Amino acid sequence: MKRGSFNSKLGFILAASGSAVGLGNIWKFPFEVSNGGGAAFLLMYLFFCFVLCFPIIVSELAIGRNTKKNAIGAFKKMGHKKWNFIGKIGVFCGVLILSFYTIVAGWVLGYVIEMLAGNFSISNNFSEYVNDVDKILIYSTLFMFFTALIVSKGIANGIEKAAKILMPSLLIMIIALIIYALTLPNAIDGIIFYLVPDFSQINLTVAGNALGQAFFSLSLGMGMLITYGSYVDKNTNIINSAALITLTDVGVAFLAGLIIFPFIFSSGIQSDGGLGLIFEVFPKIFEGLGSITGTIIGSIFFILLSFAAITSTISLLEVPVSFLVDEYKVRRKFSVWIVALIILLIGIPSSLSQGKNDFFTNFITYYGKEESIDFMTFITDVSNDTLLPLGGFLITIYVSSVWKKSNLSREISKGNKSYQGSIMEKYINFSINYICPLILGTIFVLTFFNKFFGFS
Ligand code: TRP
To answer: Which of 87, 148, 252, 441 could form a disulfide with 71 if both were Cys (CB 3.0 to 4.6 A apart)?
Structure first.
């Protein structure tokens, strides 16, 4: 069976950036920023992305390209089968993420329809909307269907082709909305909140959230980049690719903030942040624009969100599929539909956890906390904020002490002749050996006990 590959460098960059740019940038990032004290959160997030995450992106891509294997098989191929537990944690984590991501993507898809119909009042009934679980599950199933359809067509004909259409459209929509947002009255108050840091807001919880957000947003720490890296040829420059992926992801998150905060501040609508932020606030804003402009801007906004989401769900689905295809020689089409179905079923508790079902809504109360949290939040705590940074940490340990930096350098220099001996090489090696394990390890341990055991 022939293993797929990307047809062009651009196609790979677009697919990998498409994975990175998603609901994490546009839905999750703004409420993380507002909960984390605006610009103080933003600064930490930027630091984590460029200093801690960048060397790990490079490592994941190098491992993938070196082995031409999926997230689990890669470790075996390198002769370190014992370490494939890193890939196993990753695949497990990806399944968890895709299960709730598909539910949120279902909300988004439903909103596209509501906005096209000019039904702005949906925002007043957001909790009713998400608890109409039958309807949401239909939207989520539809979303998963499109995802699976694309993934079933393979790397070049499915994933790459979709990214080449969706990513440029996404960029055009974002630019159009920014221009519009900046012309709104009071836009500047939103910009100030967003861009002027209040350092008193920085604490352990905020740091932990910023770290989790950086990993989630970059699709890092669960072998997605090992998988995509395995479809890339030897001439691809890994350093430049990693830089482009990081810049695109951070850039889109940053630009999304430039859309969202002016919109919120100019509308004067109060929001408690949280998962509902864009769903509750935005339709009200669109309504205020008048029915025609509102329908147009509102539909564009939620279509943009769906486009961003589907290039991400594609990458999340590809990780377990690639594992089954490589290791068990299961046919691609068959594994795609089976995995998609299983993940949809795993997502059902998340869809019930927003009020519909009491058990999943008040799923767990962490040690030392008063309030219980719902199942979906619990899953995001476990996957985004715990397993992803843990996976990233383990990869740095693996590269520095098992695979060794000489092998990393050799792989990177294949598409980058001037790499060996360069400052970039010294920086990557130093980070992988010292900075990443140390800082990542420390923040990880502290935030783990902070989140789950109330340590402060
Ligand atoms: N990065 C995506 C977002 O920001 C989500 C995502 C896609 C992801 N693939 C991933 C997160 C792999 C973690 C791991 O929405």
So the answer is: 87
**pLDDT tens digits for 166-221?**
999 999 988 888 888 888 888 888 888 888 888 888 888 888 889 989 999 999 99
Output the residue whose Cα is nearest ligand 1's atom 6: 219
Ligand 1 atom with minimal separation from the 221 CA: 14
Q: Is 245 in the pocket of ligand 1 (CB under 6 A)?
A: no
**CA 29/CA 21 separation, integer angstroms:** 11
Say if ligand 1 is within 6 A of residue 20 CB. Answer: yes
Q: Which sequence spans correspond to the domains of the chain?
A: 9-356
Asked if 411 and 435 count as a contact pair (C-beta separation under 8 A), the reply is no
Ligand 1 centre to CA of 177 (Å) is: 23
Res. 30 pLDDT band, cuts 50 70 90: confident
DSSP code of residue 122: G
Q: What is the DSSP string of 75-118?
A: HHHTT-GGGGHHHHHHHHHHHHHHHHHHHHHHHHHHHHHHHHTT
CA of 57 to the centre of ligand 1 (A): 13
Pick the residue whose CA is nearest to atom 7 on ligand 1.
312
Architecture of domain 9-356: Up-down Bundle (1.20)
